[in-house]
Amino acid sequence: MTNAQKWVISALCIFLLLLFIEIKTKKEEQPVPQMPGQISQQQTTTSNDADGLTLINQNGCTSCHGSDLNGSAVAPALTSIKQYWTRDKLINYLRNPSSYSGDPRFDVYRSKYNAIMPAFNNIDVKELGKIADYLLTR
Ligand code: HEC
């Protein structure tokens, strides 16, 4: 091997090393993804436009629970549910209804209604907060 070849090879090695370091540091800079499921208190405080009732209409709740939420053939009334829920629990329920199916009340619902309460984890938590606030005033 000539000296020139040695130089070329070592330059190449250094280049590859730098490239490797660059790729590694880039990866470490990426933001850490947020843990799903947990809701912080700050996220649930409300601050924007549409109110709870509007959101309920927009998200199709009335198509199952009835136009005035008085219940229908497919879903129970949502008129006096504050006896069952705290705000935080209700928000979590709307995000993942199946995790609350252990309550005997839900056994009755299941035998009475064919529909299944969908999970609304696609709705912003702030908006679910407004929906919960509205439901808890009825
Ligand atoms: C596809 C029909 C359907 C839609 C749409 C729907 N629900 Fe339901 N919901 C149900 C059924 C059925 C139940 C009864 C419980 C069960 O079967 O899981 C229920 C139960 C509930 C309960 C619990 C009632 C209780 O006694 O505690 C709440 C609260 C609720 N729904 C709120 C909502 C809200 C808010 C929306 C809109 C964002 C919505 N639902 C949309 C079918 C629906």
Characterise the protein shown here.
By secondary structure, this protein is mainly alpha-helical. It has two domains: 1-31; 41-135, Cytochrome Bc1 Complex, Chain D, domain 2 (Orthogonal Bundle). It is built from seven helices and no strands. The protein has helices at residues 3-29, 41-44, 52-58, 61-65, 87-95, 104-112, 125-135. The longest helix is centred in the first third of the chain and has 27 residues, at 3-29. The termini are far apart. The model is unreliable at 40-47 (pLDDT under 50). Residues 56, 59-61, 63-65, 74-76, 78, 81, 84, 94, 97, 105-106, 109-110, 113, 115-118, 120, 131, 135 line the site of heme C.
Mean pLDDT: 85
Largest sheet: none
Enter the CATH topology name of the largest domain.
Answer: Cytochrome Bc1 Complex, Chain D, domain 2
Please report which band the strand proportion falls in: under 5%, 5-15%, 15-25%, 25-35%, 35-45% or over 45%.
under 5%
SSE string, helices as H and strands as E? HHHHHHH
CATH structural architecture of the largest domain: Orthogonal Bundle
Which blocks of ≥5 consecutive residues have pLDDT under 50? 40-47
| Number of strand segments | 0
How many distinct domains?
A: 2
Distance between the termini: 87 Å
- Principal-axis shape: rod-shaped
Report the CATH C-level class of the largest domain. Answer: Mainly Alpha
Computed over alpha carbons, the radius of gyration is 27 Å
- Tell me the number of helical segments per DSSP (H or I, 4 or more residues long): 7
Briefly note the structural class of the backbone. mainly alpha
